[in-house]
Design goal:
Chain lengths: 410, 410
């Protein structure tokens, strides 16, 4: 059997473990020297590949350097947000496949979310159409946990752990004074509330903060929110509220757009504050209490200090499994996670394969039956689902400079 | 010798290690059963003490529970921002000392920053004036690192590590796309730029981000800033800028106040965005590039995931040292840190004692000779000063729920 080369790329937003999946693909690729020649990386995804920005992993990360890749957040290879044309007649396709042929590529891996699976779908369909033997496999990645046909996605567990842990710390911080206060925490998730729901994992006992949790799956009503905050003050001095960035009213207007018309800076340009900032101001005006808002921002997707060992291990496993599947001849598939509950109810995960065409351009939101208390909380079923995904600590080695050791492209 | 009881309180803003100092005081207090009877805690500082909210540590945190206190961020005892009256003739003083007498208090410890040292000063002066034998000792605590007569303060090292580590992660995150971008990171510090300066520790090689670092010690000029960003684009695709929340112009006007006059919400109230948000918008308008801002907010002072082992150990040591000093008869002192450099240039810290009256109401800012590049960077001397303070990882035990084990007041 003639040796072929493997190429792998990353696409979409970074996560804490997108490089763990990359590590899985690369290390397993290097494990099969009889079948796989070079293991290449596309720098800045398919867009970079079109511009011939490529690296060879044996040169870029020789020996133990590859091990550090596992703990490095971000996207080692760089990313892109390039969408391939809908029509497979477009000249970009023969151009791409000519390059694949020149580089003797037999295996193509793409790590990403929805849009990246769209790339996997188009390339595998074009390969089938033209009789190319290239195998195209998608590796799931998104903190949003919004891919269908998989129990969850790599990246979600660590982001959820960041959310749960940081919300708990902020609750502790909020509790130090005996004066009424409201803290609004704004969490990523425009359409799917998985990550915001993870804030429920921060609770230490029933009735603990966060007292209100709002996902974008239900409509947000400002007056109802204020009434609930007022009610919460009857029993609690410090009220912590978690909201998805994408909360919106019944008509679909985002809450962060409410102050659009008037908020302008000194140049007369609109200043878009998040929904957290908006609600902070609203609460302060209505109740005259101390109010603050915290926007979790990019740290929730790139924090190596809050890696979930479960998430990291699963990300590596997905990478390895994808290579093994491709070697068995699979193509046009995304690696999926299938949850197996053992007899004692403990958590166990197995990898599977799903037709990538069923996955791209679909979105999985939090099921309505897991949302309760009038859209202000999540059920025990959600907790049972999410808890195993954040377990385990990753001891990231520290360097001489006192900070975690990461690897970078030169 | 008649046994006396010890009481300890916390005051001001929380830090990641204020409870480590508390642990040091309490554990050392319990180590001296011949001299010290009960070890009490004031709930919500001196204000809570006046309202008789007190706990006994042997009941509240028996056995190994006390160990968990060391890793718990926030302020276990709760805090206050209560300033004792300037005049020692005020009736609150005899009221306080009558309570001390009723509780047979012989040792009083207060963990906090500037304002807390003011409390220590007043109580010790009142004790001297009235012939009370109570010993009053201050334990330093502030992420701002702005106390005088001490090399640094407990809390700064962990906050600096959070800043350095999170800035590094955000740099990685910013580097994934090949499109010009500016990321503004806003860091705590109204008057002293120590914590913002710590962002320089994030650099991995000369010329790495953050490319611009602005402290409140120098005046900020908006046009000069924009010119420097433009220049940075000549060599860099992604520009990361770190700014103190307290940056201000030559006239002393805070940059965050620049958009005050026009930013209002739908109720017509002023919406105060931070200086990071303001600069983000400015950069986007001027250069038409992708711009975002990240406000570090409370996590920089309450993150247990980024504890510096050095900082935590020193906080404990300061607590222990304070108790030992009080037992030797010291009063009206704050525990200080004295840096000793060993022959091989490695870092070594010893505790000292300073007259608390020299400390309260003074503020230590970053020396001008450590600020360079026209007020946009810090020197190697600062790096040499700060680097040892962030070293060492604390392995915070995880609970069944996958999150760090903390202790709470019931």
């Amino acid at each position: 059997m003639e040796k072929k080369n493997l190429i792998v790329g990353q696409s979409g937003g970074p996560t804490a473990v997108i490089n763990s999946s990359l590590y899985g693909v690369v290390s397993e690729g290097l494990n099969h020297p009889e079948e796989i020649g070079h293991v290449y990386g596309m720098v800045n995804g398919i867009e970079g590949f079109l511009n011939d920005t490529i690296l060879d992993f044996q040169e870029a990360l020789p020996g133990e350097k590859l091990e550090y890749l596992k703990n490095t957040p971000g996207a080692y290879l760089g990313s892109c947000r390039y969408k391939l044309p809908e029509s497979l007649e477009d000249p970009v396709y023969p151009k791409l496949f000519k390059k694949f042929e020149e580089m003797n590529i037999g295996w193509f891996f793409y790590i990403g979310g929805n849009d990246s699976m769209d790339t996997v779908s188009k390339l595998s369909r074009y390969a089938a159409q033209t009789g190319s033997e290239i195998r195209v496999i998608g590796e799931p990645k998104t903190i949003d946990n919004d891919l269908v046909h998989t129990d969850h996605t790599p990246g979600f567990g660590s982001a959820a752990k960041y959310v749960a842990s940081t919300v708990r710390e902020i609750i502790l911080d909020a509790n130090v004074y005996e004066k009424k206060s409201v803290t609004i925490i704004e969490i990523m998730g425009r359409h799917a509330g998985w990550l915001t729901a993870a804030s429920a994992l921060a609770r230490k006992y029933p009735g603990d903060n966060p007292l209100l949790i709002y996902l974008p799956e239900t409509a947000f009503d400002v007056e109802d929110f204020l009434a609930r905050v007022e009610k919460a003050f009857e029993k609690n001095c410090n009220v912590v509220v978690c909201v998805s960035e994408g909360i919106h009213d019944e008509k679909g207007t985002f809450i962060c757009e409410y102050d659009n018309s008037v908020g302008t800076d000194s140049f007369g340009h609109k200043m878009l504050a998040g929904c957290g900032k908006y609600l902070e101001n609203l609460v302060r005006q209505r109740f005259g209490v101390k109010a603050r808002s915290v926007e979790f921002n990019v740290s929730q997707r790139c924090s190596a200090s809050m890696l979930s060992a479960t998430d990291q291990q699963e990300a590596v496993t997905a990478g390895v499994f994808g290579v093994q599947a491709a070697l068995k001849g699979e193509t046009g598939k995304m690696v999926s996670f299938v949850r197996k509950e053992t007899a004692d109810g403990s958590y166990h995960m197995e990898c599977g394969l799903e037709d990538v065409n069923d996955i791209c351009n679909a979105e999985k939101t939090v099921p309505m039956e897991w949302i309760c208390s009038g859209g202000t909380d999540v059920t025990k079923d959600f907790i049972r689902y999410a808890r195993p995904l954040i377990r385990g600590h990753v001891n990231v080695p520290l360097g001489e400079d006192g900070l975690p050791v990461f690897v970078y492209r030169k």
